[in-house]
Amino acid sequence: MLANFPKLKAIVAATAASVTFFLPGQAMAQGLSADVLLQDLALAEATEAAAIDRELQALWARSGSPSMDLLLRRGTDAMERGDLQQAAEHLTALTDHAPEFARGWYERARVYFAMGLYGPSVADLQRALALNPRDYNAIYALGALFEQFREPERAYQAYLRAKAIHPHHEEVSSALERLKPSVEGREL
After folding, report:
1. Which of 40, 83, 169, 170 is the most exposed place for a label (fewest CB within 10 A)?
2. Is a pLDDT exceeding 80 seen at residue 75?
3. Whole-model pTM?
4. In whole angstroms, how far apart are CA 186 and each of 18, 34, 154, 181?
5. Comparing C-alpha atoms, which of 82, 84, 135, 92 is closest to residue 111?
6. pLDDT in tens, 102-161
7. For residue 19, which of 75, 129, 98 has the smallest C-alpha distance?
């Protein structure tokens, strides 16, 4: 069959080479952009922080592959519809095909959490944070899991870590306020 397509090997080789050169460069550009945005976020006023957060989320949601982006979108759409099983299937396909894409692991962790599968959720959050240690939403989610496990001190530490990256994260601030009396104690 390949004899009918003599240029096929050359086309496949060229495609593979372009993907090999494109993806690391894009990852490098995303890393630099994320670094700048994260620095801006740490210093931003509350009014500016929301816009910077949206930029970071959009940046982190791009895998560099239209197919993988489609799997991510299908998974998150299914989760929004409440079809957790379908969301898990799409996001599992995503993590299988793009294991270096942190957002896929984070989103699947959210689905597993919603399904009550806390062990797999923790494992996926660990993977997401190994790939993107400054993803404050993944750190926040880890804190929520620690709360679920009735470990308020560990949850509080996770929330403090997320707040150091994104000082105006509303859910993090609320969680810190909620846990502060049980972790730090009450003033007499």
Report:
1. 170
2. yes
3. 0.80
4. 60, 38, 18, 5
5. 84
6. 999 999 999 999 999 999 999 999 999 999 999 999 999 999 999 999 999 999 999 999
7. 98
Beta carbons of 136 and 166 less than 8 angstroms apart: yes
Which residue bears the tokens 């090999």?
20
Q: Give the span between the Cα atoms of 53 and 40, in whole angstroms.
A: 10
**183: exposed, middle or buried (Cβ count in 10 Å: 0-12, 13-18, 19+):** middle
Which tops the pLDDT comparison, 67 or 1?
67
8 confidence band (pLDDT: 50, 70, 90) = very low
Residues in the chain: 188
Structure tokens at 160: 């403090």
